[in-house]
Specification:
Layout: E1 9-11, E2 14-16, E3 20-22, H1 31-40, E4 45-52, E5 77-82, H2 86-99, E6 103-108, H3 113-116, H4 128-141, E7 146-153, H5 158-171, E8 175-182, H6 193-202, E9 207-210, H7 216-226, E10 230-233, H8 235-239, H9 243-249, H10 257-272, H11 275-290, H12 296-304, H13 309-321
Parallel strand pairs: 3-4, 3-10, 4-5, 5-6, 6-7, 7-8, 8-9, 9-10
Antiparallel strand pairs: 1-2
Helix pairs in contact: 1-10, 2-4, 4-5, 5-6, 10-11, 10-13, 11-12, 12-13
Length: 336
């Protein structure tokens, strides 16, 4: 348990505690996974998957695969959107506010070609002026907190990131989630935590660090060495959805928690999605969860070959019949 992680932090007059966030991850931080993590607790905020700002105003939560939520989670749920047009982003933010979300997050970190070709995501890091104008437009459109998740930029230097942070804060951003890697880097090199410090020193709003926090020691070290206000957990939360409760509340997971978690995730996906979509999402998640086990690669591969949910469930049951050996820390080779 991290002693000071439970302290409150203020974001635009709204208090959150603990200072741990579930980071937004496309295809992964869906409503089912968020419900699973919420059953353990220990987080301050959660983020949705990345939603298209253009599509969002007309989205129907009953059929949308990404713009979907549970009523009880709205007080701590932030909806992340991507887009390049200021007016379109503002309209999407208004829809988010009208639904009762805690806040809206602007994606400026996704470097997938399909997103950047639209001038969205990490492409905005190339044009600080346009990025600031976009934030200002969204800020003017809503009263709820506006955050920005962004990366170092397209060059491996903290200076431009710190300068951009200052401009975005001046434009009205209320908080940042900062991942200190260059935009094209898909985890080929370690994140540079010193860049988090540079961003934090440039602004007077909360900054949440993100990037390779896999243990309580990592979490403490990130906060103490960078001065960030909190930590956004991504892949480690996928592997161990109880990690927030463990670090913030002192929760002690029992030996059967892995088996229960694997089955519960499948149940929740079935609850929220139609079978084909539920199975596809389970296969995407299982690789991260399988990293907990010595022979997790084979387990993930077998689930990946399942033809339907029934076969996936049977595969999980068979795997846990053998009392599989677990790793102290997840296998990074499966943390894709």
């Amino acid at each position: 348990m991290i002693p000071y992680i439970d302290r409150c932090i203020d974001i635009k007059g709204r208090r959150i505690s603990p200072r741990l966030l579930l980071a937004p991850m496309a295809g992964l931080t869906n409503v089912a996974f968020r419900e699973l993590a919420a059953e353990y607790g220990g987080f301050g905020l959660m983020f949705t998957e990345m939603c298209s700002a253009k599509a969002l105003p007309a989205e129907n939560p009953r059929v949308s695969s990404v713009f979907r939520w549970r009523g009880p989670e709205l007080p701590y749920l932030v909806c992340q959107i991507f887009g390049a047009d200021r007016a379109v982003m503002a309209r999407a933010a208004k829809r988010i506010e009208s639904e009762g979300f805690f806040g809206v997050d602007i994606n400026m970190g996704c470097s997938v070609a399909a997103i950047c070709k639209q001038g969205a995501g990490a492409a905005l890091l190339r044009e600080p002026g346009r990025a600031a104008e976009l934030v200002a437009e969204v800020r003017q459109a809503v009263a709820i907190p506006v955050s920005v998740k962004f990366r170092t930029g397209w060059s491996d230097s903290p200076g431009p990131a710190a300068e951009l942070a200052g401009r975005l804060a001046e434009a009205g951003a209320d908080a940042f989630v900062f991942h200190p890697r260059v935009a094209p880097d898909r985890r080929s090199r370690p994140p540079k935590w010193s860049h988090i410090q540079a961003v934090k020193e440039a602004v007077g709003i909360p900054v949440f660090g993100n990037g390779e926090v896999f243990s309580e020691h990592d979490c403490v070290r990130m906060i103490e060495t960078t001065g960030c206000d909190g930590v956004a957990i991504g892949r480690m939360a996928l592997a161990r959805p109880w990690i927030f409760a463990q670090w913030a509340r002192g929760f002690e997971p029992g030996g059967d928690i892995y088996q229960k978690c694997a089955h519960r995730m499948l149940e929740l996906l079935e609850k929220h999605f139609e079978p084909i979509n539920a199975l596809r999402r389970y296969k995407k998640w299982i690789g991260y969860f399988a990293a907990n086990f010595t022979y997790g690669h084979g387990f993930a591969s077998r689930v990946g070959r399942a033809a339907d949910i029934a076969e996936a469930r049977k595969t999980v049951e068979n795997f846990f019949c053998t009392d599989p050996a677990r790793n102290t820390f997840p296998n990074m080779n499966l943390f894709i």
